[in-house]
Automatic annotation (TrEMBL):
Residues 65-430 form the Amidohydrolase-related domain. This is Amidohydrolase family protein. SUPFAM superfamilies: Composite domain of metallo-dependent hydrolases (SSF51338), Metallo-dependent hydrolases (SSF51556). It comes from Herbiconiux gentiana. Keywords: Hydrolase. The keyword Glycosyltransferase does not apply. Gene3D superfamilies: Metal-dependent hydrolases (3.20.20.140), Urease, subunit C, domain 1 (2.30.40.10). The keyword Hydrolase applies. InterPro entries: Amidohydro-rel, Metal-dep_hydrolase_composite, Metal_Hydrolase, MTA/SAH_deaminase.
Length: 469
């Protein structure tokens, strides 16, 4: 490292900052020893900076340099469940998942999560909102709107998921479910508090984007669940993301539960609806008026046949909108380029308007927009001095994608994982040509394959018979 403490300087790049006050430019970017962007500019390096000897200097040779993607809605423990239930809608798919994961213990879920986090990083996702798998072992029945509970796992089951994201080096906001319906209420609040404290103590501040409530009223039997979630939000000063109105199944009972959140005072800045595909006009208007946002999962909604979120309407209402990759078991490939293209193309097809959502707007939603929705845009989501240097080097010439007519359109529409050459978190290389630099990567792969078979056998999931290898 140089005298100046500069860790990395990238020169000769087409920089796509995704900051609202700056368009793309040809130039350079420097990363300080603290992992944050210390300077950036157009053209060649200033003469004074050239003479410093700024740590590693990388010539991008005209490649795109852009911020890492932010997945504002993810279930990363599902990395070993890709291709599961290929023809089921939400509730059938969740049911099979629940049956499978019932056989997992804390070490299984650690390796599942670690593998999923490394997969995100290798594909250019550098920050994620992660719905941790609940300690409660059970199964939801949509027809009766009831959940059958089999057991409650040790708290280590939850904590090991925090450990996995930390060990992978993924910046993560961890969502914790408040299981007050299935335990004595104060015991559930105590366990929630211990989880928040464990997160704060065990994950370095630079990797932790904080804690959040895992909103679960969609599967709850009582309005008290909404009030409990609001209490957890208030006690810990955190937000909440609730799966809501995702599927067209059982719409009446889902819509009734919107009132539970409304009356509990949950709707406010920092409260997010995950999916929000099927609200009525009143729900969308009230959510926006109260400052609540939504997170859109284009690939997942298509895979599960859930429907198409009305993004133009939410934008008109002024709702914060994030974008997520959801489960690896319902996106199958955790590909943010694919996710944004499916999003743009679906909106254009449904609205029969090729300009309803432009590539720069969609890129913003999957980076800075997601960071804003999560309340972490001061740290991630765009390339700006003072923010973490979470960087993607994407080479449109390898393989060659042809002449560049429009930088944002070419990056979003013509490039993909095949063009993703390097991924940096805090200026440190975490993946190159899709291969992780993490020393645990090979073990994570081996553990995932072995443990998925063992867990499937223990849980008697019907998918066990379909495992080819």
């Amino acid at each position: 490292m140089s005298e100046s403490g500069t860790l990395l300087t990238i020169v000769n790049a087409v920089v796509i900052p995704m900051a609202d006050d700056r368009d793309w430019f040809r130039g350079w970017l420097a990363v300080g020893a603290d992992g944050r962007i210390e300077a950036m500019g157009e053209g060649a390096l200033p003469p004074g900076r050239e003479s410093i000897g700024s740590g590693e200097v990388l010539d991008a040779k005209g490649a795109f340099l852009a911020p890492g993607f932010v997945s504002a809605h993810s279930h990363i423990f599902t990395s070993g469940m890709r291709g599961m239930t290929p023809g089921e809608p939400l509730y059938g798919w969740v049911g099979e998942q629940s049956t499978f994961i019932a056989g997992a213990d804390e070490e299984d879920v650690y390796w599942f999560t670690l593998h999923g986090c490394l997969d995100f990083l290798g594909n250019g996702v550098t920050s994620a909102y992660n719905f941790t798998d609940s300690r409660v072992v059970g199964k939801y029945d949509a027809e009766t709107d009831r959940r059958e509970i089999y057991a409650v796992r040790p708290e280590a089951y939850l904590h090991r998921q925090f450990d996995a994201a930390r060990d992978a080096g993924l910046r993560t906001m961890n969502a914790i479910r408040l299981d007050s319906e299935f335990q004595p209420v104060e015991e559930a609040f105590d366990a929630f508090g211990r989880a928040v404290r464990y997160l704060e103590a065990s994950v370095p501040p630079e990797l932790s984007l904080g804690a959040s409530v895992f909103g679960a009223v969609q599967w709850s039997a009582s309005a008290e669940a909404a009030r409990d979630e609001v209490r957890a939000m208030d006690e810990h000063g955190i937000g909440n993301q609730a799966h809501f109105l995702e599927t067209s199944e059982a719409l009446d009972q889902q819509r009734e539960k919107f009132r539970w959140y409304e009356e509990a005072g949950a709707l406010r800045p920092g409260f997010l609806f995950g999916h929000f595909v099927h609200p009525d006009t009143y729900m969308a208007r009230v959510a926006a008026e109260k400052g609540a946002g939504m997170v859109w999962q284009p690939t997942s909604n298509g895979r599960l046949g859930s429907g198409v979120a009305d993004i133009p309407r939410y934008r008109e209402l002024g709702m914060p909108i994030g974008v997520g990759l959801d489960d690896q078991s319902c996106t199958d490939v955790s590909d943010p380029f694919q996710n944004l293209r499916i999003g743009v193309y679906t909106q254009r097809a449904v609205n029969q308007d090729a300009s309803v959502l432009m590539p720069r707007e969609m890129l913003r939603m999957h980076t800075l927009g997601s960071a804003e929705a999560l309340g972490v845009a001061d740290r991630v989501g765009s390339l700006e001095v003072g923010k973490y240097a979470d960087l993607l080097l994407v080479d449109p010439s390898s393989p060659d994608t042809g002449p560049v007519w429009d930088v944002h359109a070419h990056y979003a529409f013509a490039c993909g994982l095949r063009n993703l050459k390097r991924v940096y978190v805090g200026g440190r290389l975490v993946a190159e040509d899709g291969v992780s630099t993490n020393p645990l990567a090979a073990q994570a792969s081996a553990e995932l394959h072995a443990r998925v078979r063992e867990v499937a056998s223990r849980s008697a999931a019907r998918s066990t018979e379909r495992l080819a290898w």
